[in-house]
Amino acid sequence: MKATKREVILGIGGGIAAYKSADLLRRLQDNGYLVTVVPTPSSLNFVGAATWQALSGRPVTTQVWEKVEDVRHISLAKQADYFIIAPATADLIARLAAGRADDLLTNLVLASDVPKMIVPAMHPSMWLDAATVANVSTLRARGFIVMEPEVGRLTGSDSGQGRFPETAAIIKSFLSMTGRHQDLIGTTVIVTAGGTREAIDPVRFIGNRSSGKQGIAVAKAAASRGADVHLIAANVDIDTLPGVSITHVENAQQMLEALLESFKDCDILVMSAAVADARPKTRALEKIKKAMFTSIELEENPDILATLNATKDRQIVVGFAAETSELLASAQNKLVKKALDMIYVNDVSGGAIFGHDETAGTIVLRNGDLIPVPHQSKDTLADLLLDYALKQLG
Ligand code: CTP
């Protein structure tokens, strides 16, 4: 688990402004960032790998064929908290917009979903060409921060918009990009995701349709905003998530135990897991034969949120309710009964929401306020829930 996010990949494109990025690298380091430089092969015509190695104090590779045993395009992508690509040439921007992966840098960009900033530098006629304009708008639509190049004198006698911005301006934009995502530094967030399975015998279980997508979205959003994140995953097919420690559990009792251990040290609990309300009274050690499989005697599972409530002090607790009728009344009832700070309720009748990337519903706050959540991605809702949780945390 990373407490602070400071691993930066500095991508260098093949433009004359590459030499100015030596200063950018220094200033990033001054701001506390740990920088790995990944030049494109053509940029080495302007500044060689030795310069980047010496300044960063780290090995420099440009192709996936180097240090193959490290699987650099994945290991570096996992390690990175941010990307800054400066200078970015028209060709590099085109390759990024097309989603190509023909050198180490473009592989890394594809393999990582952390915030990324691009600092273009090129001749004004290339910057204003319709292809570059379209590529830049594609990248912006995908969430890249693309700086506007400065207007002024270029390397030759021409002038216009295309100059590499001053280092201070780049650093300012970079810090505002990282700052925007860092409002949860120092905050510990626990997220539960998935659906518990209550074993009937070694083969069968009582389960539910929760996919875990919403919980994963919250964990990812919290990690990218700087929180220490612990994901308690019930039957979710996920091994790693950058910046998130994961505990796998199968049933409600195990989820409760994992939470009893960690809840007191957290600031925000987002309880998006669907917990089975009941479990078989006994778990058969052998597979039950068809002829004997006629009824299952159930006993109630512990109510995890209600149990944790007894030890709650500063924690902000976010509950979820998946309902098929009387949505708001049930949500309000659960909010009070489980002493929640807010609850997100959605209508799951007809199989809606489960397993999908989108959601729609209502956030109900402790003070009774209702925040409608129109149809949107689970990622967007994740940030919205964290915004409200942070507000309540003060
Ligand atoms: N929850 C919990 N422990 C349980 C059941 C649910 O902590 N045994 C949590 C869920 O993770 C969710 C919230 O409580 O955040 C509401 O879940 P839901 O299943 O809708 O609540 P129930 O109390 O089980 O209500 P219902 O009678 O509608 O099943």
Account of the protein in words:
- With 394 residues, the chain is of the alpha/beta class.
- It folds into 2 domains: 7-178, Rossmann fold; 188-393, CoaB-like (Rossmann fold), CATH 3.40.50.10300.
- 33% of the residues lie in helices and 25% in strands.
- It contains 13 helices and 19 strands.
- The protein has helices at residues 21-30, 49-56, 72-79, 90-98, 104-111, 124-127, 130-141, 167-180, 213-224, 252-262, 304-309, 327-337, 378-393, and strands spanning 7-12, 34-39, 82-88, 116-120, 145-146, 150-153, 159-163, 188-194, 198-199, 205-206, 228-234, 244-249, 268-271, 278-280, 298-300, 316-323, 342-347, 358-365, 370-377.
- The strands form 5 sheets. The protein has an 8-stranded mixed sheet with strand order 12-11-8-13-16-17-18-19, with helices on both faces.
- Helix 12 (327-337) links the parallel strand 16 (316-323) and strand 17.
- Helix 1 crosses helix 8 (167-180) and helix 9 (213-224) packs across helix 13 (378-393).
- It is elongated, with a radius of gyration of 25 Å.
- The protein starts with 6 loop residues before the first strand and ends with a helix.
- The model has no long low-confidence stretch (mean pLDDT 92).
- Residues 252, 271, 273, 275, 277, 301, 303-305, 319-321, 334, 338 line the site of cytidine-5'-triphosphate (CTP).
- The site of cytidine-5'-triphosphate has 14 residues, from helix 11 and strand 16.
